[in-house]
Amino acid sequence: MIRRTLAAIIIVVTALALLVVAWPQLFGAAQLPILAQLVSLRGAATSAGLGIVALLVIAALVSRRVRRFAASMAAIMLVFCLVNLIVLSARGFGDTQFAERTDSDVTVLSWNTLGDLPGADTIARLAIEARADVVVLPETSRAAGEAVASLMGDAGLPMIAHTSSYDEVSKARSTTLLIGVGLGDYVVDELARTTTVLPSVVATPADGAGPTIVAVHPVAPTPGEMANWRSDLQWVKDACAGDNVIMAGDFNATLDHFAGLSLAPGAAVGQCVEAAVTTDNAAVGTWPSAIPALLGAPIDHVMSTPNWQATGMRVIETQDESGSDHRPIVAQLTPVG
User: 240-271 b/e with 16+ CB inside 10 Å = b?
Assistant: First the structure.
C-alpha cells in the first residue's frame, strides 16, 4: 500500500513538473532560474524525453514488478514530448524560401561572432552573399567591424560601422552594427548605456526618415545574471515601442522568455514581430552551433514593427565550423503598404 501511494505521488509530482517545464508561461515562470534554461531547449528536451520513454517501455515489458509505474511514467513523458512537438511544429521547423527582392526591401544579417572568431573575411563573404543592408554583430570588435565594412565596400556594398564597447577587457564585450549607406545617414550615441552587461547599439536616422535600427545583446541568463537578464529583456521591450523599428541580434532568449513583453497582438516583444515566426523558422536553433539546429535554442532573432513584413528568413547552418558558437541568421523585410 505504501509503495503504491509513493508511486502515485511520484507520478503526480512528475506530471506537474513536466507541465511547468513544457509551458512555464502558464505559471509566469519562464524567466525563473533553471526553467529559463530548460524551456530554451525544447528540441533537445523532446529528444531526451523520447529516449526516456523508450527506456520506460522496455522496463515495463521486462519487469512485472514495475510495469504499472513504468507505463504511467512513460505515458506522462510521452505527453510532455507531444506538447513540445506541437509547440515546435507551430513555430516552424524551417522554410528557407525568400520572396523576390524589391528595391525597398531591407536584408538583415545577424551573427554573434564570439569575439571575431570567424574572421572578417568569413563575415563579409556571408554578408555579401546575402546582399545585406544591415549587419548586426554582437561580440564583435570595432576593428573587425570596420574590416568587414571595408570588404563589403570593395564588393559594391558600402557600409558604415558603429561599435559600442563598455570596456576593452574582451572583444565579446563589444557590439558592432553595420548600416548600408543606401539607407541614409544614421546617428549612434556610442557612449549611451543600453543593456546592462553587454552593449546594444541604437541607430536613429539623422533626417528622421527611415527605421530606427537596434543591434541587441542582452546578457545570458546564467545563475549570477538573472536579474540583469530580466532587466535587459525589459529594455528590449522599450526599445521596440516605436512605430518604425528594425531590431536584430543575440537576444539570449527564446519566444517562451518573451511572455508578457508584448505591447500588441501578434508581437513578440514590444511592438516587434518575430521574422522567424511569420516565416515558419522559429523552432530552428541558433545556439549552440555544435549540436543539430533542431535541438538547439532559437535565441538569435530579427524583429520589426508591423510596418515591415518578413518575406524570407533562414538560419545559416553552413558556418558551424567557423569558430562561433552561434549560427548566423538572415531575414528579408519588405515595407507594408
Answer: beeebbbbbbbbbbbbbbbbebbeeeebbbbb
